[in-house]
Design brief:
The chain is an all-alpha fold and about 180 residues long. It folds into 2 domains: about 70 residues, Tetratricopeptide repeat domain (Serine Threonine Protein Phosphatase 5, Tetratricopeptide repeat, Alpha Horseshoe), CATH 1.25.40; about 80 residues, Alpha Horseshoe (Serine Threonine Protein Phosphatase 5, Tetratricopeptide repeat). The chain is built from 10 helices and no strands. It is elongated, with a radius of gyration of 19 Å. It holds the Pfam family TPR_11. Keywords: Repeat, TPR repeat. InterPro entries: TPR-like_helical_dom_sf, TPR_rpt, Ycf3/AcsC/BcsC/TPR_MFPF.
Length: about 180
C-alpha cells in the first residue's frame, strides 16, 4: 500500500469524519476521527474533532474532554481547540470554566465571530450582562449584519434595563433578517 491509499491516509479519514458529522452521523464520524487520530497521533485538530463528536455520542463528556486536553497538549495555541473545550464545558453545565476557554479562544483569534458569540452566551448564562454585551458588540464589529448578535445584544441590554438601546438592537436584527 502507498501513502495515497485512502485506508492509510489520515486526511481521507478526517474528511470522511467531517462529512459524517455534518450529516448528523456522530457514531460514524467518531470512528473516522479515531482512525485519523491513530494514523496521525500528533495532529491536534483530529483529536479536537474526535472529542467534539465523542461528546455528541456520550453526554458524560469525560472521554471527550480527555481528547480535547490531549489536543491542547499538542497545540495549546489553537483557538478552535479552546473553543471546542468551552463548548463541551458549557454543555456540561460549567459556564464559568467555559468562559475561561472562550476567552482563551478569543485572545488567540480575535477575528472569529463564533468565539465571541460563545463567550457572550456563557457570560449571559452567568448573568454577567456587561461582559456579555461587550462580547456581542465585538461580534457585531466582525459581522455587522449577523441577526443573532443583534438579538442577543438586545436581550442582555433589556436585562441591564436599557430598553431604548435594546429596541435599537432588535430593530437592526429585524432589518438584517
Amino acid at each position: 500500500m502507498s501513502d495515497s491509499d485512502p485506508i492509510d491516509n489520515p486526511e481521507s479519514w478526517f474528511a470522511a469524519g467531517e462529512r459524517e458529522r455534518d450529516a448528523g452521523n456522530f457514531r460514524q464520524a467518531q470512528l473516522c476521527f479515531e482512525r485519523a487520530a491513530v494514523l496521525s497521533p500528533t495532529n491536534a485538530v483530529y483529536w479536537s474533532e474526535l472529542g467534539l463528536v465523542m461528546y455528541e455520542n456520550d453526554e458524560s463528556g469525560d472521554d471527550a474532554l480527555r481528547c480535547i486536553r490531549h489536543a491542547l497538549e499538542l497545540d495549546p495555541r489553537c483557538a478552535a481547540i479552546w473553543c471546542a473545550k468551552g463548548v463541551i464545558l458549557f454543555r456540561q453545565g460549567d459556564p464559568e470554566a467555559a468562559v475561561v476557554a472562550f476567552q482563551r479562544a478569543t485572545n488567540l483569534n480575535p477575528r472569529e465571530a463564533d468565539y465571541w458569540m460563545n463567550l457572550g452566551l456563557a457570560y449571559a448564562v452567568l448573568e454577567e450582562y456587561q461582559p456579555a454585551c461587550q462580547a456581542f458588540e465585538i461580534g457585531i464589529e466582525i459581522v455587522p449584519t449577523d441577526v443573532s448578535f443583534w438579538e442577543r445584544k438586545g436581550t442582555v441590554l433589556l436585562a441591564l434595563g436599557e430598553k431604548e438601546r435594546a429596541e435599537h438592537c432588535f430593530a437592526n436584527a429585524h432589518r438584517f433578517a
